[in-house]
Amino acid sequence: MTLRLGTRRSALALAQSGQVADAITAATGIPVELVPIVSEGDVSRAPLAQLGGTGVFATRLREALGAGECDLLVHSLKDLPTAPAPGLVIAATPRRADPRDVAVTRGTLLEDIGQATIGTGSPRRQAQLHRRAPRSRVVELRGNVDSRLARVRDGELDGIVLAAAGLTRLGLLQSEAGEAVIGTGSAEGLLLEPLGLAEWPTAAGQGALAVEVRADASAEILAAVATLEDPATRFAVTIERTILAGIEAGCHAPVGVHASVGDDEVRVRAVVYALDGGHRVGLDHAESLAKGYIRQTGGGNGANAADSADPAARAALIGSAIARRLLDAGAADLVSRESST
């Protein structure tokens, strides 16, 4: 048996899909071939919000999976809508990479950047930039990682904000780096500054991958994909995506959320922003877990969500409770305001 893995054609998508393919082969001995697929988000230069937001990169891939053109998909989890796709299931969430954002400049820390032009296509990052670098001008940005880096190096932009996980998977950043470093490869000569999650929470699921298969996938496919599952990552991203689903309500309000799972505790930081960064509603939540709870019970895929002992069900309960608290604290006003713009 050879598994066919559907992937976008970008360098980052091919890199992370190749890493997943290699991991499956290493664990099972089953060869995995990549099947490149072009999505609308790859060929259009329009802002993501105009194309349909987070789902624009996933739609064509999911159509290919449903049609039998491939056996599995690898997504950046932050690019997936929170609603499940009919007939498909996220069969594995591999161990999460660095979830932080990284500011990329020609040598200036973000807090010192002053009057500058900074590019990003993310409403959340735009709102955070308005707060963190209030004198800067924030402009819409699309394109692959190399083209974005080139716009900084060539002086067209003073800075951009990218995901640390993507830079790491492309070999441009050491994921353990806690302080600003000079990039390598296509980022050579540029300053890469990881942004702390306390003041700069990132997108739900950022840094995590989702391996998706058909709901009727064979036992052999499910068993091969299951070797990638990391229960702690599943628990954390379920919390984050449940929060997003609970407060988004069809709007595009910028939301930053990150859940950190330890052996006996989960900590969550969640913030809803006004688009102009002028106001935000946030909270921190900590909850104790039985020591080894996730490791002992497994990650689950939500199939037994009615079972209170299922980690996926508990994660969803935590996320739902945090979403309600955010709405009660005023996030509902921001959601309403942004959905009307």
Shape: globular
What is the CATH class designation of the largest domain? Alpha Beta
Look up the CATH topology of the largest domain: D-Maltodextrin-Binding Protein, domain 2
By CATH, the superfamily of the largest domain comes out as Periplasmic binding protein-like II
Runs with pLDDT <50, length 5+? 302-308
Strand order across the largest sheet: 7-6-8-5-10-9
Secondary structure category: alpha/beta
Report the order of strands and helices: EHEHHHEEEEHEHEHEEEHHEEEHH
Question: Cα-atom Rg, whole angstroms?
Answer: 20 Å
Q: Helical proportion? A: 25-40%
- Name given to the CATH architecture of the largest domain: 3-Layer(aba) Sandwich
Percent of sequence in beta strands = 15-25%
Count the strands? 14
How many angstroms does the end-to-end distance come to?
51 Å
Give a structural overview.
- A six-stranded mixed β-sheet has the order 7-6-8-5-10-9, with helices on both faces.
- The protein has helices at 11-28, 40-43, 48-51, 59-66, 123-132, 145-153, 164-169, 219-226, 231-248, 293-297, 311-339; strands spanning 3-7, 32-36, 72-76, 88-92, 101-105, 117-119, 137-139, 159-163, 181-182, 191-195, 209-214, 255-261, 265-273, 280-288.
- The chain folds into three domains: 1-94 and 208-229, 3-Layer(aba) Sandwich (D-Maltodextrin-Binding Protein, domain 2), CATH 3.40.190; 101-195, D-Maltodextrin-Binding Protein, domain 2, CATH 3.40.190.10; 230-341, Double Stranded RNA Binding Domain (2-Layer Sandwich), CATH 3.30.160.40.
- It is of the alpha/beta class.
- Helix 9 runs parallel beside helix 11 (311-339).
